[in-house]
């Protein structure tokens, strides 16, 4: 028996174009940031797809949304190739500074409010690996006045009851939360292992719909409240040297201006 339309779940997954964690980080020429797929967001997309596989026809749609420059569409395409149905790209100019968590949360709230069929579950990475803020999910929950379950390592959803059980890692071990939908969930690393997008799915993703919006379309201001003055790389490490004995070590320390300190 097919569930009634009222019990079908609509899942939204925000994703962000960030630094590739497998490459060396490089500072931009203007020293305002770094050259930029966020692993936590990949986990969020994977979890949404797994939920549909478990709940079968009880999940109606999986929509991904990103807020960023034109190249961010590649991040959306990756999520669509993993199994999402459609995307939303809130485009900002290449020259614009990266929005802060509060601006992102306000934009996500506006995107959610635009969805005619509503959103039952928002799954997003617990943090982005460029700024490590870990604030967007919590702010979004506050703006929407929805329950939140952060740092999830296990997620079980009961679509019929509109409930979810979330296991999260805390300092003392594991904590289990029972929440009502609609719900905000942020993902931790141990929630799942994201799949690789197959070539056929990558080709199919090119035909999936992506809605283009701007900040003005959503009625939000993405201007950062904090100005980044300068970003620089840490000083490069210099090679060390070997000494033959303690006397030579002490002599080297004295040459470097380092004096002994009595205990």
Description of the molecule:
The structure is a single chain. Helix 3 (101-114) crosses helix 4 (136-144). With 263 residues, the protein is an alpha/beta fold. The protein has helices at 39-55, 73-82, 101-114, 136-144, 199-205, 215-218, 246-255; strands at 9-15, 59-68, 86-91, 121-125, 148-158, 163-170, 173-180, 183-187, 210-213. The radius of gyration is 23 Å and the shape is elongated. Strands 7-6-5-8-4-1-2-3-9 form a nine-stranded mixed β-sheet, sandwiched between helices. It has a single domain (7-230), classed as Rossmann fold, CATH 3.40.50. The protein starts with 8 loop residues before the first strand and ends in an 8-residue tail after the last helix. The protein is built from seven helices and nine strands.
Strands of the largest sheet, in order across it?
7-6-5-8-4-1-2-3-9
CATH architecture: 3-Layer(aba) Sandwich
Dominant shape: elongated
Going by helix content, strand content and strand pairing, the class is alpha/beta
The helix tally amounts to: 7
Number of separate structural domains: 1
Write down how many β-strands occur, each being a DSSP E stretch of 2 or more residues. Answer: 9
Q: Overall mean pLDDT score?
A: 86
CATH class: Alpha Beta
Low-confidence stretches: 1-5
> From the alpha-carbon coordinates, what is the Rg to the nearest angstrom?
23 Å
| N-to-C span | 78 Å
CATH topology call: Rossmann fold
What's the quaternary structure here?
A: single chain
SSE topology string: EHEHEHEHEEEEHEHH
* Main beta sheet: 9 strands, mixed
Could you name the CATH homologous superfamily? HUPs
